[in-house]
Amino acid sequence: MTFVGGPRIGAVQLENPFVLAPMAGIGDPPYRRLCRRGGAAMVCAEMVSANALHYNDERSRQMLATFPDEHPISMQVFGNDPERLAGAAQAAESAGADVVDLNCGCPVPKITKSGGGISLMREESLFAQCVGAMVRAVRVPVTVKMRLGFERGENRAVRFALIAQDQGAAAVSVHARSQEDRHSGCPDLEALGAVSRSVKIPVFGNGGVQTYHDVRAMMDTGGVAGVLVGQAAIGNPFLFLEFLAAQGGNPAQGVVPLNKKFGLLREHAALIVDYYGELVGMRRLRKYIPSYVKGLPGSAAFRGQVNRLDKQDDFLALLAEFEAGF
């Protein structure tokens, strides 16, 4: 099911307003491919360090890998050196990115202490240089992801969205919380609306989206052109189809039944093992399991057993046993 008339990011026309948000440690190719098939108009890769790419870090280079069936894809980079960010943008473009995104919203100390993430929202001049350098370095659209500010109640995003627009950014996305909030509390949709009204480029909202009701509130009150969905989609990569069905007035049509959810988990296991190999793949799959089985009777015991398994066949046998109880 396709929602006609999604927002446009430069030359990239999205088929609907719903985008998979960038999530560190989660947004790898196997998961992104499932979400793209599950209705996401665009998927965002994990953030990659511009410094690491500058020094040709092999693991960081591998994080730029893409598959034909996940386009359009946005690749996110972080750092605070304009020249290195420009180089990282070029590396992402060469790897197949349809959009390159600058992370100015990550609140994690590991990122901020080196001047990346939300730390870029402390100095307007440096921020402008970073965005401008990336825009000039690539042919694909450049976007910026930011937060409202550092402390609850402030809204630096209005000013920084204007700067991003002036530097040639094709869109901005705003996590409608502060660094102080991290991922807790209700998003400030009124503040998000102020950002949307301040610029002519598309603004995407992010933060706290769990249901289609949340989507509508963010789009109506926040005035955004689209919504980035993160945590709610981890164990439900077809959540975007639910939103599309609700958008079309048939919410029940999009609900993923439990048997299909178990089927998606099997497919996820196959994709992740094929991509990483069995040992690494099965260990990475453990991060997604809690979200797939959240709220189901016996889920805690099931998770505990999965965490002791390294073989795909053992996992599939355990999953079949668990599913038989429903």
Low-confidence stretches: none
Q: Write the H/E string, N to C.
A: EEEHEEHHEHEHHEHEHEHEHHHHHHH
The coarse silhouette is globular
Output mean pLDDT. Answer: 94
Query: Total helix count?
Result: 16
Estimate nothing, just give the exact number of structural domains.
Answer: 2
How much of the sequence lies in strands comes to 5-15%
**Span of the ends, CA to CA:** 28 Å
Largest sheet: 8 strands, parallel, barrel
Record the strand order, biggest sheet.
3-4-6-7-8-9-10-11
Question: Which CATH class of the largest domain?
Answer: Alpha Beta
Radius of gyration: 19 Å
Number of strands: 11
In CATH, the topology of the largest domain is named: TIM Barrel
CATH architecture of the largest domain: Alpha-Beta Barrel
Summed up:
The protein is an alpha/beta fold and 326 residues long.
Keywords:
eight-stranded parallel beta barrel; globular; single chain; 326 residues; 2 domains; TIM Barrel; alpha/beta; 16 helices; Non-ribosomal Peptide Synthetase Peptidyl Carrier Protein, Chain A
